[in-house]
TrEMBL record:
SMART domains: HTH_LACI
SUPFAM superfamilies registered for this protein in UniProt: lambda repressor-like DNA-binding domains, Periplasmic binding protein-like I
Gene (name only): lacI
Protein name (database record): LacI family transcriptional regulator
Species whose genome carries this gene: Wenjunlia tyrosinilytica
Region described as Disordered: 315-348
Length: 348
């Protein structure tokens, strides 16, 4: 079933069929409905490559996600949930999703950019990678609309979406302070990553505002995974004056910290309180159930898609740069976090 056969069966021209199926205003609602119903009955599907050539739009958004963790056999549940949030938001907005990879050639600066041009993609969402990756930098420097999630992209047509990491970390500190804890420590993520740096800043700023000193030995760098949190917690508990409460900048590290406390014979929360960040599914299932700062994965995905749609609308309307390519949506779009109190934190 092709468009010419569908036009013959509908008794109209191929141009009318095309306008009806593409939602153009030149077709009456009665005709549009009749053609759509016939197309559905006959199993007609438009030729997407041909539509892309005619419309110069593909309704497809690229996703760059190549953290390298998977090659090391590591899987982060928050990133998986975030991917689902992005996919759901794109689906609601009528977009398709295409995963872009480097095809193993990380030295090719244009690997992502070539894929965008080859498939005529509308825009790209970038997450789970490092902003100094050469292929990511080439993409951000191009005319392609790019939205980074928890990633500070720098380019003419870029925007950033992130959780309020500083406020979330500060809320965790205030919660522990109100419970009577004064010897606080933190297990950070890799500090070169913006979320980890923001959470560390929120922790230190809140401690300073509350008059809680934080010795250097109470700041341990982790890796956002179980083993890193377990090792960092073991080091903290081995100090001459160990902390009475620990804020881990990720739930997996917090769960690793729970294991380290058990191995050291310390009860949580009686001997040491633990607070995480993310609110992954496992946070409510471990024992004691983990107090954590929850991120809204669906809201992050929706904010990313809203940001790229705003930039694309400006481009399609010809509003923006002198060449009509459209202007970037400036600034960072911040999604709120919330503290979820469970069993792993209790009064000192």
């Amino acid at each position: 079933m092709n468009i010419r056969e569908l036009a013959r069966l509908s008794g109209v021209s191929t141009a009318t069929v095309s306008r009806a199926l593409n939602g153009r205003g030149e077709v009456s609602e009665v005709t549009r409905r009749r053609i759509s119903e016939l197309a559905r009955e006959m199993g007609y599907a438009p030729n997407e490559p041909a539509r892309t050539l005619v419309r110069r739009r593909s309704d497809t958004i690229g996703l760059v996600w190549d953290s390298g963790y998977e090659r090391r056999g590591l899987h982060h549940p928050f990133l998986q949930g975030l991917l689902s949030g992005v996919r759901a938001a794109l689906q609601d907005a009528g977009y398709h999703l295409m995963l872009l990879t480097t095809a193993g050639d990380k030295d090719d600066d244009d690997t992502y950019l070539q894929a965008v041009r080859r498939h005529n993609l509308e825009a790209v969402v970038v997450m789970g990678v490092q902003s100094d990756d050469r292929a990511v930098r080439a993409l951000a420097d191009s005319p392609v609309v790019c939205v980074g999630i928890d990633l500070a992209l720098s380019g003419p047509h870029t925007a950033r979406v992130t959780s309020d990491n500083e406020a979330g970390a500060a809320a965790a500190v205030r919660h522990l302070f109100e419970l009577g804890h004064r010897r606080l420590a933190t297990i950070t993520g890799p500090v070169h990553m913006p979320p980890a740096a923001d959470r560390l800043k929120g922790f230190l700023t809140a401690c300073a505002e509350l008059g809680v000193p934080v010795p250097d030995s109470h700041v341990r760098e982790g890796d956002f995974f179980l083993a890193g949190g377990q090792q960092a917690m073991a080091e903290l508990l081995a100090l001459p004056e160990p902390p009475t409460a620990v804020f881990a900048a990720g739930d997996q590290m917090a769960i690793g910290a729970l294991h380290a406390a058990a191995q050291a014979g310390r009860a949580v929360p009686a001997d040491v309180a633990v607070v995480g960040f993310d609110d992954i599914d496992a946070a409510s299932l471990v024992r004691p159930a983990l107090t954590t700062v929850a991120q809204d994965e669906r809201a992050l995905g929706a904010a990313a898609v809203a940001a790229l749609r705003r930039m694309l609308e400006r481009r399609h309307e010809g509003d923006g740069t002198a060449d009509g390519s459209g202007a970037a949506d400036p600034g960072t779009h911040v999604v709120s976090t919330r503290l979820v109190v469970r069993e792993s934190s209790a009064p000192r």
